[in-house]
Design brief:
The protein is an alpha/beta fold and 683 residues long. It has 23 helices and 16 strands. The strands form three sheets. It has an eight-stranded parallel beta barrel with strand order 7-8-9-10-11-12-13-14, surrounded by six helices. A six-stranded mixed sheet has the order 1-6-4-5-3-2, with helices on one face. β2, α2 and β3 form a beta-alpha-beta unit. The termini are far apart.
Length: 683
């Protein structure tokens, strides 16, 4: 009797005492609470069917669970139920319970059921991939930030439509619940058809995508640039320019400005019918108040900007949307922009902090507007925290904007795909209870979106749970979720090296000029070539470049080996690895050319010199091979040139990705350098 009682107590306490989740299972984002119990759980393949309680709808499911019948069968089930009891307050929160009898997902909202299903899908993937039983457990989960968005900028390129559907699937998988789409001319505006690019997406196509996204709890809202960044409109409407020589800004004092803008807004809202926001842009103005129409008003540039903002905000509200506005211009007019961008200490900031101009003009700030506080670096600085407090004190709504890809990220985002910046700003948003967080991905240097994905997924991780993981832990979990790599295998270490290689590639072939940052490319001067009558002089002149090229050649081999191993072992998403492979080959091209030239310049005799010349020719010939391979892979998802009839912008923003209407801009230095070398060989 005593033995029987002891065993019974042991069984009971064994199921009640929680333990840690087996490290085989890596969930992304990290749930808020996981209680794991002893006893038998379930294995991949043991679930027999999907059901729901009463009128509870079954959400869109992942591939594994969606493969089960949705009618009662014998065996273990996945059961969905809506309930107001014993669940998180958030409609996106859920409770996922696993026992040896099956799985139950409970939430107060349909979004929570969907996210519980996504978490279950990840557990089943790991059980399948690593042949491990899923322990009995209870996951209680909810987001720290309610609005977790990424930014899609199609300023300079479009991807194939199916890519955007796959994008929605992946964002939903990682619990990102919104996209703010910067349309520019890539929507087929019906009220102003002249604005649309020849290859623009139709409103019906966009509506279908938005419905698909809504079914997966992803809300798509438009960003239609106003006041500034208006080249896509004003290249067709010269009469509305503030500066006749530039298509950058509208004149805010011309009533026709609002006729055009409002009709574009209407088209965008119709194309994206389920979003709650209308982002009106409004940033980086350079010339407001210089036109006679504006001068006649007697208003300052700041007043003119805020009058425009009031009108467009009212339009948004009248049409059932919440307006969003990039907030930099009021801060620049107030003279505190540089301070906010600085990393000065609290003591230094306190001495310079002066919001007098902002305080004086506070009545001009529309209260119905969300002010998008953008900072693409470290948002946790003292000055930035002070600014957030000012907004809070004034009762203004604020949303954070970080960056998964910024203007200083041509070809490939850098510094851990900027995930540290995403984490920092997400923590700040959660601490200050801001309206939400947006991970921007700027198209100035138009990196392939597959190179941006780790930053987007970081927004999923840190928007949901900003403090659970550090960056190194996130990178390892990302590798498992995206490719099926166990953290201890460290299969994605090559990506750290690939990011480092971009810095030499930026300027390897020039002695002056820049292509990074991609929003401010300049004229450039190519390096000189060796003088056969003065051997060794060229190598001495460019010794630093050559030494670095030798190091980069070794780095290239390491990266290539790492990518090859990753491709051989990946369980999914191999296409992203091929994008990394082609990007690696592009970044290595200047290295090959520099080392071949160095070999010629240091040749010991005529025979060695002739052999080096032949090698240089081979490297020049390889350029076209490398380019063809890269574009063959890139073009599987994106269009590589502008369509016939496209009209380029005419303004001061000299974006790298707008330098040519075909893909030549990708090789801004390499094309003229190869031409120069071939001419040198001929002479």
């Amino acid at each position: 009797m005593r033995i029987s009682l002891f065993i019974s107590l042991l069984l009971v306490t064994g199921t009640l005492f929680a333990r840690n989740l087996d490290k085989t299972f890596q969930l992304l984002p990290q749930p808020q609470s996981v209680e794991v119990y002893s006893g038998k759980g379930i294995n991949y393949g043991e679930l027999a069917y999907v059901t729901s309680v009463g009128e509870t709808p079954i959400p869109v499911l992942g591939a594994i669970v969606d493969g089960l019948p949705q009618s009662k069968h014998s065996g273990k089930s996945v059961c969905f139920q809506l309930s107001q009891a014993n669940v998180p307050d958030s409609p996106e929160g859920y409770v996922l319970e696993i026992t040896d009898k099956g799985v139950t997902v409970t939430s107060r909202g349909e979004a929570g059921l969907f996210y519980g299903a996504q978490t279950l899908e990840q557990l089943l993937e790991d059980s399948r991939d690593f042949k491990k039983e899923i322990s009995p457990m209870k996951i209680t989960d909810y987001p720290a930030i309610a609005y977790r968005a990424v930014h899609l900028d199609t300023k300079h390129h479009l991807d194939r439509m199916e890519y955007y559907y796959r994008m929605v699937d992946k964002l939903a998988r990682y619990k990102v619940n919104a996209i703010i789409w910067e349309l520019e001319d890539k929507l087929r505006f019906t009220r102003r058809p002249e604005v649309a690019a020849p290859n623009a997406i139709s409103k019906q196509e966009m509506q279908a995508l938005c419905r698909y996204a809504k079914e997966r709890n992803v809300e798509i809202s438009p960003l239609v640039q106003g006041l500034g960044h208006a080249g896509f409109i004003l290249k067709h409407h010269w009469e509305l320019r503030e500066n006749p020589a530039s298509d950058w800004e509208f004149c805010p004092s011309d009533p026709r400005t609002y006729e055009v803008q409002f009709e574009l807004y209407l088209d965008a809202l119709e194309a994206m019918p389920y979003g709650r926001y209308l982002h009106v842009g409004g940033d980086e103005i350079t010339a407001i108040g210089i036109d006679d129409r504006c001068k006649a008003t007697g208003k300052s540039a700041f007043e003119l900007q805020m009058i425009w903002l009031k009108k467009v905000c009212q339009f948004a509200v009248d049409h059932g949307r919440i307006p969003i506005f990039w907030d930099d211009m009021p801060l620049k007019y107030a003279g505190i922009w540089d301070l906010i961008q600085s990393d000065k200490t609290e003591e230094e900031v306190a001495k310079e902090w002066n919001t007098g101009k902002l305080d004086k003009g506070i009545d001009l700030f529309p209260k119905e507007c969300v002010y998008m506080r953008w900072n693409y670096g470290d948002a946790t600085t003292p000055a930035h925290r002070r600014l957030l407090k000012w907004y809070s004190d004034k009762g203004l709504m604020v949303m954070g904007a970080t960056a998964a890809s910024a203007g200083d990220s041509p070809f490939l985002p850098r510094r851990d795909t900027r995930s540290g910046y995403v984490k920092g700003f997400s923590q700040l948003v959660a601490e200050n209870h801001l309206e939400g967080i947006l991970a921007t991905a700027w198209d100035d240097g138009s990196p392939h979106l597959d190179t941006v994905w780790r930053g987007y997924i970081a927004q999923g991780e840190f928007g949901w749970n900003p403090t659970a993981r550090n960056i190194e832990a996130f990178k390892k979990v990302h590798a498992q979720r995206e490719y099926g790599f166990r953290p201890e295998d460290n299969r994605m270490a090559f990506l750290d090296e690939l990011e480092k290689a971009t810095f030499f590639f930026d300027g390897a072939l020039v002695s002056s000029g820049r292509r990074n940052p991609a929003w401010g490319t300049t004229d450039f001067t190519l390096i000189d070539l060796p003088d056969k009558d003065n051997p060794g002089a060229w190598s001495e002149k460019y010794k630093e470049k050559i030494d670095q090229a030798k190091s980069e050649a070794e780095r290239y081999k390491t990266i290539s080996d790492g990518i090859r191993t990753a491709e051989q072992n990946a369980l999914r998403n191999r296409y992203t690895l091929t994008i990394y492979e082609q990007t690696n080959n592009l970044q290595n091209y200047p290295v090959r050319l520099l080392l071949a030239l160095n070999e010629y310049d240091t040749a010991k005799d005529d025979a060695a010199r002739r052999a080096a010349q032949q090698k240089i020719r081979e490297v020049c010939d390889y350029f076209q091979v490398m380019r063809n391979n890269l574009e063959s892979v890139y073009s599987e998802t994106r269009f590589m040139q502008q369509p016939e009839g496209f009209i380029a912008d005419m303004n001061h923003h000299n974006h790298l990705a707008s330098k040519t209407e075909n893909s030549d801009w990708l090789y801004l230095y390499e094309i003229p350098m190869v031409k120069k070398v071939l001419q040198w060989l001929k002479e």
